[in-house]
Each structure stands twice: as structure tokens, then as C-alpha cells.
Amino acid sequence: MAPTDVKEAPATRNAAKSRQRILDAAESVFATKGLEGTRMAAIASLAGCNQALLYHYFAGKDELFTAVLEQTYAKIRAAEQKLDLTDLPPIAAMQKLVEFSFDYVRDNPSFIKLINDENMHGAEHLKASDDARRLNTPLVDTIAAILRAGVARGDFRVSVDPVQLYITIASLAYFFTSNRATLSVVFDLPDANTCFATRRTHIVEVVLGYLRATPAG
Amino acid sequence: MAPTDVKEAPATRNAAKSRQRILDAAESVFATKGLEGTRMAAIASLAGCNQALLYHYFAGKDELFTAVLEQTYAKIRAAEQKLDLTDLPPIAAMQKLVEFSFDYVRDNPSFIKLINDENMHGAEHLKASDDARRLNTPLVDTIAAILRAGVARGDFRVSVDPVQLYITIASLAYFFTSNRATLSVVFDLPDANTCFATRRTHIVEVVLGYLRATPAG
Amino acid sequence: MAPTDVKEAPATRNAAKSRQRILDAAESVFATKGLEGTRMAAIASLAGCNQALLYHYFAGKDELFTAVLEQTYAKIRAAEQKLDLTDLPPIAAMQKLVEFSFDYVRDNPSFIKLINDENMHGAEHLKASDDARRLNTPLVDTIAAILRAGVARGDFRVSVDPVQLYITIASLAYFFTSNRATLSVVFDLPDANTCFATRRTHIVEVVLGYLRATPAG
Amino acid sequence: MAPTDVKEAPATRNAAKSRQRILDAAESVFATKGLEGTRMAAIASLAGCNQALLYHYFAGKDELFTAVLEQTYAKIRAAEQKLDLTDLPPIAAMQKLVEFSFDYVRDNPSFIKLINDENMHGAEHLKASDDARRLNTPLVDTIAAILRAGVARGDFRVSVDPVQLYITIASLAYFFTSNRATLSVVFDLPDANTCFATRRTHIVEVVLGYLRATPAG
DNA sequence: CATGAATGAGGCTTCATTCAT
DNA sequence: TATGAATGAAGCCTCATTCAT
Asked: Would you give the DSSP letter of residue A179?
């Protein structure tokens, strides 16, 4: 997974663009090599600028990583905001939510890499970031609403804690992508596309199977 | 999370003991600091020996990490072997399995750290290790057997793929521990004990809820 | 010893003022941090201007240091010019001269710092400065005159070389201030005020004691 | 003043020798270039070893500088110890002491450079060094004894404070060497040998002239 | 078996300086 | 006149690793 080439234009004298190019380059390299494995030189090179310029915009490696994390969280929060689940019937809404979660990590592999790395470091960057803390996920509220609607219609079981369900969905959505490398060694997984499709179907089944109302009587 | 002190005895001239002390120190430091964050000096210091001695027993940092991984996988495989689920009724067996998986990662935090790190590196060490590949998990077979028994008794739904279920259980068991740092920043999680207990109950419910046979008719 | 705040007014578009503000800031920082220890950024910050502006007025760090040196020498030469010793009797004149020298370095600590620094660098900046070379000290002539008058009155010994005496006075005046830091570690010197007063009295005594005419016979 | 070549033997595997070679190289470079002007690479090169080896023996640049200072102070204290002034008549003893002080700094130019540098840095290294603090100069006691003897014989004036006199001797001994660079620009000093000889004679004259007993009556 | 000495490569960061506006 | 953007050249230090005993 080589970092994609972000260098588009020769160094412009445009602060916002330069900063963003550095940020994007950093995201790419951090996701590929990890926090410690990343070399500032690699970021500079990918951003098409001098290594010293990184320090013009960011205080250091950790602050740059923090900025990348903030951007990462902002992106997924934005994607979550765009999901429009309120108009769907509860079961369909829940299915869409699970699928979205799964697809997002599948399609944004940097996301998982960065979050994992941050977890390996005890979330110290996140803790230091006011930005990131503010970006609380809106999904828990959405889940709560869907659950209520589903219970009202008799589709869902009662007494499901939305936070627990959120974490369950995240678990199912993230783990496969996050651990595919070692899983592939232990099992002989088929090609990626088949894998993902099978898995996607399965986790929807798990969540909906769990949620379906117990037979009355 | 400071590495626990592995140094038990003053350096004795005993090959097997020295090697094991180094391996244990390495596990502790790798789990705490990650592969790149780990310093050979830190391992030597914790092992109570000279840095050069590490190279006496292991070819280098990566080989040492590989050896640690092998030991890690061997340990969980051994624990899995000890699980005796065959005599239990299917539902109880499945519950015990889920709980075992959850408890194992909760009680062996190094396990997750190491596996995650390895995943961040594309499982390159695992791929290079014949030992590790041989240690295929026996759990899939166990799961298959439990599923068959459960279906036979009318307790479980049909057509559940044991590999998918294994991954699902692993997802639910691992994710919470693995991502607790960032989750704590986003949500205001209560104290660790409460967290784990609530979560443990929930994931059992999810797995069993998913598996329970659909009401006939 | 933090640099004193030279920034008085918001950056005005006034060439002479900007140049002087930079020069004053530079003097302060150079005196505090030394030539190599000084950062152009620190000067700019203290001058309340952009770093690039420094290069608008001065060719570079060394030239700026040279300019500071020139200003420094100009200031002490001006102070020396104001001394009016010609009307005093020789002994009083000499005492006033010694005291002036001592007080000047005590009251202008930057002076010593800059001169010392320049000496550490082999006076290369001074050598490159026509300005500084022109500013030959008038004190040697003054000393010569006082010595002549003193000898004529029978107050002073004969055959004292005015240049040597000048250097001796400078030695006594400068050394204590210049080396106070290390002296304080070796001896347990009392508080600054007492120190200086005692020392001032002593060096006057030394110079006058040395100069007094030998008893006839 | 290029650093003298200390590299005598190819890198030996002898800790004490290596350490000393590094220390000597450091003294040379620090004295030539100053603390900030010194490059660790220059020291390593002069010591004939790898730059990393410096960090094997010394924690960093400042600690190395401190060690050099300690060695420097130890050397002059050793030289002072060897002075045997107690058997000389007071005037001769005092003359010898002044000459020794003057000669020492003339013959050990690093001494002055290092002390000056340390003073420019507020003696922070010295303060951090227990070694250096312990090495209090024995000269003050010697001076006190000489003064007492001189007064007893009627050679010296009374009530001279030995600490003040010590500082005065140091001033006269150090200043000329320490400030020769700038003095040379201001005055047109003759060749070094003549300079030093003239100055040496003069300062002896100053100290003895000051000390001689006032004519009775 | 075990160790302290030694090293080469490279990482993060700083800094004086120049460029373009 | 004044500025923020941009850069090349180091500098200090770290670290995995090898050597010699």
C-alpha cells in the first residue's frame, strides 16, 4: 500500500493549499507507516515541499498527527451526518446503518489505521485535541431513535442500550478490515471482494437477528 | 501502563532462562510501546541483561517480535484447547465460548496490542513464521460442532457459517478492549469494571440473540 | 536576565525608527544570549517586526552584530567624552576615572557581554568595521595628561606608561562584572550591592596605591 | 587557532583512553569555537571516533562541556598546589604568584576561553557540577598568609582583604589575554612576545606598588 | 555464556536566509 | 516599507546492530 501521490502542483505560495497538501500527505503516510514508522521526510516529499515547511504549519510530528486525526474524525462525522435514516422503516434503517459503517471502513482504510494507531498510543493525541472531543458522534442518538421506532412497531426487542449497540456495530464493521492481515494468515480467505461481500451480509444478519423481537408467548 | 518487572534473578549463566527472560521482557515492552516504539535497550534493561545478549538469542528486532508473536499465539491456542465445551448444551457452550474470548483479551492486554501491531504491519512477521501458521485455531471446528448440535436441538438458526461466526465473536470480544482508549474520549465511559461487565453481558446477548432459532411458521 | 522589552510602538512605517528598534532589540538579545545563542527570530520578536525585515536593514546576523558593536562602542566613547577630568587635581581625577570605568560596566552589562563575545570571536567583526576602528579611545590621552600633572605635583610615581595603566584600569573595572558568575560559584559572594561597593573601593585603592610617589630617599 | 590534532591512535577498545581522548578533543574545540559554536561532529572527528561514541561517555553537549570545565579547573588547581610560596619572603612570594597567574593564562589559552564562555552562560554548568564546586581555590589562604607575613615584616600595608586581592590579581592576569583581540584593534599593539613581557612587568609593579607599606609618619 | 565498546545510518528539529507579494 | 511563505543546510541525538574480549 504505497502512499498515493498527492503532489499536484509545484510549491505554490498559498498558505491554505500548502497546509492542506501537507495534511493530506501526512494522512497518507501515517496511515501507511504508522505514527512511529512515519518519517517527516516522507511527508514532505509526498507533499512536494521542504521538510522545514512542515514546521511552519505544525509544531511537530505529534501535532501533525493530531491534526490528521481531527481531519479524519471530521470526515466520518460529515459522512454520518449525510446519512438520512429517519424516513426509513426501522429494520431498513438499521440495515443501512450497519452497511454504511462497514462500507466506510472498507473504503477508507486510512481511517482504521489511524484510529488503531491512536489506540495503541492510549488516545493521547485525541485527548489533547479540543476539536476531536467536540466532534461527538451523532449516531448514538440516531440509533436510539431507530430502536424506539422499531420497538413501537413490534419489530425490535426491548431494552437495547444504544451505546452498546453502537459499539457492537462498530466492532463488526471495523474488526474485519482492521484485522484482515492476520486473519488471512490463519484462515485462507478468498479474494478481497468476495470476502467483504460475505462478511457484509453476515454482520447485517447478526445485528438484525439480534434485534428482532422475541416471539410472543 | 509501565512494563511489569520481569527481572526476577540476577543474570544467571543459563541459556534457556536467559532466552525466556528476554522473550518475556520483549513481550512486555512490545505490548506497551509497539514495535517501532520499542527500544532494544528497554528490553535489555527489563530483562536485566546486556543489549548484545539479545542478539545472541535472536537475529534482530523483527525476529524477536516474531518470537513474541509465536509465544502469544501459542498461549491463546493453549487456553482454547483447555476449554471443554463438548459436554455442554449448545447454548451454554456458545455462551461460554463468547465469554472466554472476551475475558481472554480483557485479561491479556498484551495480546491485543501485539495482534494490532502486527496487523498494522500487514502481518509480515506472522507470514514469515512457520510456527504461527501451524497454530491454526481449533475454535472453528468447535464452533461448527456446537452449531450442528444447536440446530439439531432446534435451538439455533440454520446455515450459519462457522468461520463468519468465529470472526463475529472475535470482533465483539476484541474491539472493545482494543479501542477503549478512543472510545473513552468520545463517550464518557464509566469505570473499567462496570464497562467490561456491561459489555460482556451485551455481546453474549448479541450472539445468542442472533443464533436463536427463528420462530417456526 | 530576560531581554528588556524594546517594543514600544506598533510597527510604524518609519525606516529610521524600525532600524533603531531592530538595533536595540539586537543589542538586548545578543547581550543576553551571545552571538551564536541569538536567534534572528528572537530579535524580530523583540523588535516587534517580521524576521524578513531584519534583512531589509542589515545584511545578515554578523553585520547586525557588527552594527550593535559599533553602537556599543559609540556609547561608551560618548560617555568618556563627557567626563571632565581636566579641572580636577590628579589624584581626584584618577579616582573619578577608575570609578567611572567600574560604574560603566556595572551599569551597562550588555557592554561587557558584547565585548567578551567579540573577543571570543577574535574581534573579527570589529576588524571589519571602519566605524569602530575610528572610535579610538580618548582616555589614553587623558590618562597621560593626568599622569604628567600628578608627577609634576609629586603625587605620582614616574615612568608609568599610560597605555599600560589604561589596560590595568580596564582590567580592574571589567573583570569583576565579567566573571561574576563563576566567581560566585567559587566564593560565596554577598549580595550584589555590597559586592560592587566593596570592589569599587578596593580597585580605587589599588590604582592610587600603585601610583602614589615612592617615599623620597 | 585551529584545534590541535589529538587523534593519536586508531580507535582502541579502551574505555578510559577513549573517554580521555574525547575529553581532550572537546576541550580543544570548545576553547576554539565556544560552546554554541562547537559541533559535536568536530569533537568526534578530532577524537578520532564516531559521533555516537560521545554519547556513550557523556550525556550530551552540555554535560561534555561541564566535564571539560571540571578538567580545566582541576588542572589549574593542581598547578596552584605545586606553587611553593611559603618559603619565600613576602614580596618575592607575591611577585611569583602574580607572575604565575599571568603566565598560566598566557600559556593555557583554552583556560580563559572556557571560563569566559561559562561566564557568558551564567556559570550554569559550573553550578551543576559538584566536582567543580568542591575544587575551591587554595590561593586565597596562601594570599592571606603572605599578606600576614608581609605586614609582620613591615613590607606590606595593612588591612588588605585577601579575597579582593585575589580578584585583583586575577583581573590583571586574565584581562589582557582575554581581551587581546579587541585591544589589538583599538591600540596598535606590538608583537605578542613584547606585549606579554611588558604587561607582565607592569602588573607585578601594580600589585607590589599597591601593597608596599605606606611611609611611616 | 556474556559484556562493554564502538559504529553507521538516519530522525526530528532548528535556523539563517531568500522569495514573492 | 513590510510581510508571510518557503527553503537548504546542518545540528544534536537515537538506535539497531556489530566487534572484541
From this structure: T
Contact A34, B120 (CB under 8 A): yes
Residue A178: its chain B contacts at CB < 8 A?
A: 116, 119
**Interchain CB contact of B70 with A (< 8 Å):** no
Question: With an 8 Å Cβ cutoff, are B179 and A122 in contact?
Answer: no
In this structure, CATH architecture of domain D72-211: Orthogonal Bundle (1.10)
pLDDT in tens, B202-213: 999 999 999 999
Chain D residue numbers touching C69 (CB-CB < 8 A):
none
The verdict on a CB contact (< 8 Å) between D34 and C120 is yes
CB of residue C45 closer than 7 A to nucleic acid strand F?
no
Identify the band that residue A4 occupies on the pLDDT scale cut at 50, 70 and 90. Answer: very low
Read off φ and ψ for residue C124, nearest 5 degrees. Answer: -65, -30
Residue intervals in chain D for CATH 1.10.10.60: 1-58
Please give the single-letter amino acid code of residue C88. Answer: L
Distant-in-sequence, close-in-space partners of B164: CB < 8 Å, separation ≥ 6: A198, A199, A202
CATH 1.25.10.10 fits D1-58, yes or no: no
**Please, which residues 173-192 of chain C have a Cβ atom closer than 8 Å to chain D?**
174-176, 178-187
B30 CA to E5 C1' in angstroms comes to 27
- Tell me the whole-structure pTM to 2 decimals: 0.90
The distance (Å) linking the CA of D9 with the C1' of F19 is 18
Q: Hey, which residues 100-139 in chain C have their CB within 8 Å of chain D?
A: 113, 115-123, 126-127, 132-133, 136-137
Burial class (CB in 10 A: 0-12, 13-18, 19+), B83: middle
Q: Which of C167, C170, C203 sits opposite D168 (nearest CB)?
A: C203
Residue with CA nearest C1' of nucleotide F10:
D39
Pick the CATH number of C70-211 from 3.40.50.720, 3.40.50.300, 2.60.40.1930, 1.10.357.10: 1.10.357.10
Q: Which residues of B164-197 are buried (b: 16+ CB within 10 A; e: fewer)?
A: bbbbbbbbbbbbbbbbbbbbbbbeebeeeeebbe
Q: How far apart are CA B136 and CA B134, in angstroms?
A: 6
Tens-digit pLDDT profile for residues C24-53: 999 999 999 999 999 999 999 999 999 999
Portions of chain B given CATH number 1.10.357.10: 73-211
Per-residue pLDDT of chain D (217 residues; tens, 9 = 90+): 444 444 334 457 899 999 999 999 999 999 999 999 999 999 999 999 999 999 999 999 999 999 999 999 999 999 998 999 989 999 999 999 999 999 999 999 999 999 999 999 999 999 999 887 777 778 999 999 999 999 999 999 999 999 999 999 999 999 999 999 999 988 888 888 899 999 999 999 999 999 999 765 3
Nearest chain A residue to B161 by CA distance is: A202
In the CATH scheme, what architecture does the domain B73-211 have? Orthogonal Bundle (1.10)
